[in-house]
């Protein structure tokens, strides 16, 4: 087997996803078989630079690096985000089952939950919110949370799911807007209004987009 440059093992929660270039049949119990086009979730380095520890579906084992990593191989940079954007719940579940972190960020600093709520994909958002340790109120590079996205796009069911999961309705974006201030419809605004009136834990929560004058 030809040697490739060493492939760094992903950090915990930073699973790399590739689409296999060729079919491969395992030659030992420690290896994993797969077909051309299968999604290969690389979870760790192997015994040397020629092998990677990976998962595919319900199977796991060592795979030859040059079958899944290389110049002509398609790498899915943010598979969980892509699944959430499209509302593809099967792909999303596959990512979760293969340990792709639900709190990973894309180039905009957004989580998969943000994009699920942006698109109004309620079932996808509900699935993400069932994953332990998910961050519900993460802010992206423009200061928006999943609650901002759901409010602005007018998806009250997503707003309800987020609030039930403990999302903070008092976080402001870079424009210093609360989710309720950009709510698209009356139902969404009413949900946020009720949540803010009932919310005491977050009433004095610090916010990186507030100035000191806001507390005078």
TrEMBL record:
UniProt keyword list: ANK repeat, Cytoplasm, Repeat, SH3 domain
Function in brief: Induces bone resorption, acting probably through a signaling cascade which results in the secretion of factor(s) enhancing osteoclast formation and activity.
GO cellular component: a single term: cytoplasm
Record SUPFAM superfamilies: Ankyrin repeat, SH3-domain
GO biological process, one term: signal transduction
Highest taxon above the source species: Eukaryota
Record keyword Cytoplasm present: yes
Name used for this protein in its record: Osteoclast-stimulating factor 1
PROSITE patterns registered for this protein in UniProt: ANK_REP_REGION, ANK_REPEAT, SH3
Upper classification of the organism: Eukaryota, Metazoa, Ecdysozoa, Nematoda, Chromadorea
Localization terms from the record: Cytoplasm
Matches recorded under InterPro entries: Ankyrin_rpt (IPR002110), Ankyrin_rpt-contain_sf (IPR036770), SH3-like_dom_sf (IPR036028), SH3_domain (IPR001452)
Keyword Repeat in record: yes
Cross-referenced Pfam families: Ank_2 (PF12796), SH3_9 (PF14604)
Organism of provenance: Pristionchus pacificus (Parasitic nematode worm)
């Amino acid at each position: 087997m030809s040697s490739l440059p060493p492939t760094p093992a992903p950090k915990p929660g930073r699973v790399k996803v590739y689409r296999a270039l060729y079919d491969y049949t395992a030659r030992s119990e420690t290896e994993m078989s797969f077909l051309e086009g299968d999604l290969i979730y690389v979870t760790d380095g192997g015994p040397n630079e020629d092998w990677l520890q990976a998962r595919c579906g319900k199977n796991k084992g060592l795979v030859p690096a040059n079958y899944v990593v290389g110049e002509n191989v398609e790498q899915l940079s943010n598979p969980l985000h892509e699944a959430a954007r499209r509302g593809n719940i099967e792909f999303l579940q596959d990512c979760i089952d293969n340990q792709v972190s639900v709190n990973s960020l894309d180039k905009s600093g957004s989580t998969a939950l943000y994009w699920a709520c942006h698109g109004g994909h309620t079932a996808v958002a509900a699935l993400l919110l069932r994953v332990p340790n998910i961050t519900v109120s993460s802010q992206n590079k423009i200061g928006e949370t999943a609650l901002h996205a759901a409010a602005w796009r007018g998806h009250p069911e997503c707003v309800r799911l987020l609030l039930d999961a403990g999302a903070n309705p008092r976080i402001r974006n870079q424009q210093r807007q609360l989710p309720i201030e950009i709510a698209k419809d009356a139902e969404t605004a009413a949900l946020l209004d009720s949540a803010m009136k009932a919310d005491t834990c977050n009433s004095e929560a610090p916010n990186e987009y507030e100035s000191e004058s806001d507390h005078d």
